[in-house]
Design brief:
Largest interface: A-B, 12 and 15 residues
Oligomer: heterodimer
Strand content of chain B: under 5%
Shape of chain B: globular
Helix content of chain B: 40-55%
Radius of gyration of chain B: 11 Å
Largest sheet of chain A: 8 strands, mixed
Structural class of chain B: mainly alpha
Shape of chain A: globular
Radius of gyration of chain A: 27 Å
Number of strands of chain A: 18
Chain lengths: ~575, ~80
């Protein structure tokens, strides 16, 4: 009886988590010859086992025996213009592209694994023919990109690449090579192949690992030209013409990043008052002091300052990007904080605005509502940590800040945020399962309460959706906690205990007798190690005969716990207002 | 253009990275090296073009299938 129970549990798990493993192999298809032996593919081949589909076979992407962790398909419009379809035959082309799209969607529906679709429409421009009318190609391009965008918003595992936009960065005519087409049925030049392979690898990288969270900036000769301590407020190059304008644009780009959820911090060797004087009193400053989440302005080593800052914000330096005009400072941080990303800042200042805007480390697939609030949330948190330091009794301090939390069921409006939490939360995360929108949806379908987010408010601000749990009914009497996580920026508020009490309520209301939970140790989640025991869970003891039977032949990933739902509450003191 | 055989050998070992390259490549031709099939030949020519900043025409693309013919074509450029 016990055994069947756990087997069911494992079956449920394997259904939902098959996509969790790190990516090992990639299949690449193309509407014409993709030249698999070309050196452009080497860097993908170095990290993955890469297979190439026979070319021109789009329906291959929905083949049932196609097994892969990741799939890429590259479509050239020219390859659709065969025999009886010409580019002016828009009706036929429409039909064709609709077929392409329905195959794409079929693939997205049948597999939760990553799927990247690249599309190129380019043909040499004829200025005269396009001086009175928009070419059919251009229209098709825009229409198809719109269709792809819709599909991408529907399926979280689907991404598209506007290849012509990528090629144009290097020159479209340099990326294509018609000689290669007539010689080998490949449309690309070596450069074109490199562009495609690079675009694919950027998307794969971002899909696997979230963007960096915080950008640390130097001040003198970074936010403005000149040195405030020497040149004084009126001597700085900021605003007015020339290089002063560049710093203004650079600051504008920083503010834009902030609205996209990138946290901004300062690390500057300066007198603190001098720096804030520029922030408050220079009429051309775009950044304001409130845009900065935390600052270390002193004469200490930057690496020490940055480590301290990481500790204060409870973030890891590996999620930091460092921007400093001074190559010596950069060499030092590269050496002393190798896990931080130190930007090789272009030597020409006028390249900075576009360089920061296109920096891969800070680029995200989409911006959630929560991203927009992130900066003020972290500022509030910094304030929270400093005022907690001054308070002696932590619990009475927490009671004084009016903590209040609510449960929000998973749904369309918060699915991006839910996926983002699953992808990005490393510290307070019991199982570190990287759910996708589809797998969360699956859980929510069994019972809307079984996939829920927690939203938190206190006197320091509204923190938004910061916690998530997923539950599974194993057998009607045991409820399994598949996922339980909490954003690190709200740690120290006992929200985890409040969330657990909500789970206990759900379990009791649905007449379960036991909660089963798991802690899967990872490199980063030791902060959650003792949580289950603190909540009255007991570790399954594998030495007793009963449990041996329980785990016989069953692959449990982590350390398993259970908790009965009897009267005993065993939870830490509730600090939340109801 | 004067061609250095050692340089060419280097290029061959880059393009056919998973194959053994013979000490002397002076007479080497297509199919002598495991990866040097017709597509390997195509990619070899693309790499040669990139390295020497030259361009082969369609005839050359199909005719150059050995080190001697490659050297001869390069000497003409």
């Amino acid at each position: 009886m016990m055994q069947t129970r756990l087997i069911v549990l494992v079956l449920l798990k394997s259904n939902l988590h098959t996509h969790n493993n790190a990516m090992k192999n990639l299949v690449i298809g193309c509407s014409s010859f993709s030249n698999p032996q070309h050196k452009a593919w080497n860097h993908l081949k170095n990290n993955l086992e890469v297979q190439f589909l026979e070319y021109g076979n789009l329906s291959g992407i929905v083949r049932e025996d196609l097994y892969c962790d990741g799939l890429v398909y590259i479509q050239f419009l020219d390859d659709a213009l065969v025999d009886d379809t010409s580019e002016s035959d828009s009706e036929n082309l429409d039909t064709y592209l609709n077929q392409v799209l329905s195959l794409i969607e079929e693939r997205c529906r049948s597999s939760a694994r990553i799927f990247i679709f690249g599309f190129s429409c380019w043909t040499p421009i004829n200025v005269v023919r396009n001086a009175k009318i928009i070419s059919e190609r251009k229209k098709i391009n825009i229409k198809f990109l719109n269709m792809l965008e819709k599909t991408a918003s529907k399926y979280s595992n689907f991404y598209f690449i506007d290849l012509d936009a990528c090629f144009s960065e290097f020159g479209l005519t340099k990326c294509f090579d018609t000689r290669n087409w007539y010689f080998a049925r490949t449309r690309m030049s070596s450069l074109g192949n490199e562009v495609i392979a690079n675009s694919i690898s950027l998307i794969l990288k971002r899909h696997e690992k979230a963007a960096h969270k915080l950008l640390i900036l130097d001040c003198d000769n970074t936010l403005w030209g000149g040195v405030i301590g020497e040149d004084g407020l009126s001597g700085l190059e900021l605003g007015s013409d020339g290089v002063g304008d560049v710093f203004v644009d650079f600051q504008k780009a920083l503010v834009q990043l902030k609205t996209e959820g990138v946290l901004l911090a300062l690390a500057s060797k300066n007198n603190e008052d001098d720096v804030w004087n520029v922030f408050h009193n220079h009429e051309s400053m775009i950044l304001s002091r409130s845009d900065i989440v935390a600052a270390k302005i002193n004469w200490d080593e930057k690496s020490k300052n940055i480590s301290d800052l990481a500790q204060e914000l409870d973030l890891d330096v590996s999620s930091f990007v460092f921007w400093d005009d001074n190559p010596i400072e950069r060499e030092k941080t590269k050496l002393l904080l190798p896990s931080m990303y130190t930007v090789d800042v272009p030597s020409e200042v006028w390249e900075w605005p576009s360089s920061i805007k296109t920096l891969f480390e800070l680029s995200k697939f989409y911006i959630t509502d929560d991203d927009k609030e992130k900066s003020s949330q972290y500022s509030a948190r910094h304030e929270f940590i400093s005022s907690r330091k001054q308070s002696l009794d932590v619990n009475s301090f927490l009671k004084s800040i009016k903590l209040s939390a609510t449960i929000v069921p998973f749904g369309e409006g918060n699915s991006f945020r839910a996926v983002q939490l699953c992808q990005k939360t490393n510290q307070f995360n019991l199982t570190t399962r990287r759910h996708t929108a589809e797998s969360l949806q699956k859980i929510a379908l069994t019972d809307s309460q079984y996939c829920s987010l927690a939203s938190l408010k206190d006197k320091f601000g509204n923190h938004g959706l910061v916690g998530l749990f997923c539950l599974q009914d194993i057998n009607g009497s045991d409820l399994y906690i598949d996922t339980f996580l909490l954003s690190c920026r709200v740690l120290g508020r006992h929200l985890e205990s409040w969330m657990m009490s909500q789970i206990i309520d759900i379990a009791r209301n649905n007449n379960f007798t036991r909660l089963i939970a798991e802690f899967i140790p990872s490199k980063r989640n030791t902060v959650a190690e003792r949580f289950l025991e603190d909540c009255g869970f007991t570790r399954f003891n594998s030495t007793t005969a009963d449990d041996e039977e329980l785990f016989a032949g069953v692959n449990i990933n982590g350390i398993s716990y259970f908790r009965s739902l009897g009267k005993l509450s065993n939870l830490p003191e509730n600090l939340y207002e109801s | 253009m004067k061609v250095n055989h050692e340089e060419l050998r280097c290029l061959l070992s880059e393009v056919f990275a998973n194959s053994e390259i013979p000490e002397s490549i002076i007479d080497a031709k297509i199919n002598d090296i495991a990866e040097w099939d017709s597509m390997g030949n195509f990619n070899l020519l693309l790499s040669v073009e990139e390295k020497y900043g030259i361009r082969f025409n369609l005839d050359e693309m199909s005719e150059i299938r050995s080190v001697p013919s490659l050297v001869a074509a390069l000497e003409n450029k």
